Amino acid sequence: MNLNDYKVHRNKYFSHRGEARKRGIPWHFSFIMWWKKWCESGKWSERGNQKGQYQMARYGDIGPYAPWNVRIITIEENTREAHLGCKRSKETRDNIARSKTGIPMDDKTKSKISKTLKGRRLPPNHKAKIAQALRGVKHTPERKANISAALTGKKQSMERRHKQSEAMKKYWQRQKEVQIPN
Known about the structure:
By secondary structure, the protein is mostly helical. It has two domains: about 5-85, no CATH class; about 125-180, no CATH class. About 60% of the residues lie in helices and about 5% in strands. It has a two-stranded antiparallel ribbon.
């Protein structure tokens, strides 16, 4: 490590120690021990507070910053750990949901979600929520054909789909007229 690198690393050390002190967290690292911990992890060049970068985190977010009480993990892991067991208010959950509404997903994400949910049986209360959300929704004939194709696994022509739809309407009309007594 040359003199310029040493100064940069030493400044990072003092910055980290100062942040810990501001938060009232005890600090039991010398510069050498702190630098050794980062070198052992091999993540120094990926250190930071942005998505995908690494941080020095305390086990369970308790105790001091000390060689025996820290590890180098991603910011996502550290954030997830910090929120474990925290109950969010309804208002906070609603704000998070609103902030994520309309965010487009890439094909890779859609594929992961699809694989995760494949073959999964939904609980009755979840099915009821879906049914409630879909009540009164008017689908175009094209949308109905797409839904049908997705459910059956084969494409049907619009003409065939229309004939099936008309046949089902007639069937249900007859069922209403013929009401079978219990």
